[in-house]
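note to self — DONT lose this again. spent like an hour looking for the file last time. sequence + predicted structure for the chain T wanted, 88 res
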Amino acid sequence: MIPIAALQATVTAASLDFEPTDTELDAIDREMPLIRAEVELLDAQIMTIDRPATELDVRRVRRARNRVMAARRDLSNRTVTVQPGGAA
């Protein structure tokens, strides 16, 4: 039987010893408008979970969906240069 504990300790320790690269942080910064729009949509949807949706709630969710779609469109329309060995 092969001991699993020694293998798992190696994998766990190695996975926590690094930080994101500058390229990865730049990619997160580029996607931040989309992330914010998705959080706003989630907030609007959460507000309507435990009660019937009013007309204001419907508008709030619709506007949040439109913001998400606009952020996705803007993100996909950006021209990105791919660097060898890095993220796009």
